[in-house]
């Protein structure tokens, strides 16, 4: 009877690993197409900033007057400006200036916010109250208005633009890290480290900070997009590098006088900035989702 049942049992369907793997990869790509696109945009813009001559070998400072205000074409992907300069070349070479100021601003906010949030959450008491009241003051002032006040006091230039953009962002990092420090310092392994006689600063650096820092990294990716907008806004207002040095915001400012006749001078740089901001936001959300999973 057992042999009869074995012969009549339908054969098991075996899955070939070589067939299943491409299907799984395609499903992952289909479900994460926006994330892949965001990563591609980030890598492309990073390549512009690091190796501008590879992506645009022309001179961003000089142009051909006879070719001024030409629309997008195969010869000039983003068209030309009022001096005959290739707009795509200026966008590529301006990526380094804009992203340097943006990354510097985020680094300033990340470092200062981490220190303030760590001290406030770990020490508590009067120090926590004072730090958080300073954070509340920073949050009560619109970031762009505070950046304008700082850049007016500091003076023009990319370095001052980075400082002016980075200072308003400190409050967000400080609040996030403080909340994480308050959560982590009540965990069992931190209490065990304290009970075993480990010095407080060792517990702070070795145990509390590493377990509180991941949400801050996700916030940094999100704030990177906002910093791009802020840096471009200050550059648009003329607080950035001096002309003819290309910056994304200044390129839009130069093209605003030709909106009726040369739409590409403002539209295409604006689309690039929008793509970078959306990509940064998408990557930041992905990091936050993976951290909470």
From TrEMBL:
Keywords in alphabetical order: Cell membrane, Membrane, Transmembrane, Transmembrane helix, Transport
ABC transmembrane type-1 domain ranges (all copies): 95-284
SUPFAM superfamilies according to UniProt: MetI-like
Gene3D superfamilies: MetI-like
Membrane-protein topology: Multi-pass membrane protein
Domain of life: Bacteria
Pfam families the UniProt entry points to: BPD_transp_1
Residues annotated as transmembrane: 33-51, 101-127, 134-155, 161-177, 216-241, 261-280
Subcellular location: Cell membrane
UniProt similarity note: Belongs to the binding-protein-dependent transport system permease family.
Protein name: ABC transporter permease
Species of origin: Nocardia callitridis
Phylogenetic placement of the source organism: Bacteria, Bacillati, Actinomycetota, Actinomycetes, Mycobacteriales
């Amino acid at each position: 009877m057992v042999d009869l049942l074995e012969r009549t049992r339908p054969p098991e369907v075996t899955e070939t690993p070589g067939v299943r793997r491409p299907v799984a990869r395609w499903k992952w790509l289909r479900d994460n197409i926006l994330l892949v696109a965001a990563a591609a945009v980030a890598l492309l813009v990073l390549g512009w900033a690091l190796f501008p001559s590879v992506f645009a070998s022309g001179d961003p400072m000089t142009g051909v007057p006879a070719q001024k205000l030409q629309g997008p074409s195969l010869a000039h992907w983003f068209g030309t400006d009022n001096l005959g300069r290739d707009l795509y070349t200026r966008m590529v070479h301006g990526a380094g200036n804009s992203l340097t100021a943006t990354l510097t601003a985020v680094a300033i906010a990340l470092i200062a916010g981490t220190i303030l949030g760590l001290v406030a959450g770990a020490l508590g008491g009067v120090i926590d109250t004072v730090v958080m009241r300073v954070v509340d003051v920073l949050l009560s002032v619109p970031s762009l208005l505070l950046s304008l006040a700082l850049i007016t006091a500091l003076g023009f230039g990319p370095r001052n633009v980075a400082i002016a953009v980075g200072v308003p962002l400190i409050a967000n990092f400080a609040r996030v890290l403080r909340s994480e420090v308050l959560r982590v310092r009540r965990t069992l392994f931190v209490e065990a480290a304290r009970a075993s006689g480990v010095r407080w600063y060792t517990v702070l650096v070795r145990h509390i900070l590493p377990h509180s820092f991941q949400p801050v990294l996700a916030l940094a990716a999100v704030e990177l997009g906002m910093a791009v907008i802020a840096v471009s806004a200050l550059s648009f207002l003329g607080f950035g590098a001096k002309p003819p040095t290309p910056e994304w915001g200044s390129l839009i400012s130069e093209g605003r006088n030709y909106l009726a006749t040369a739409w590409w001078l403002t539209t295409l740089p604006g689309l690039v900035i929008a793509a970078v901001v959306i990509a940064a936001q998408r990557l930041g959300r992905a990091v936050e989702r993976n951290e909470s999973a």
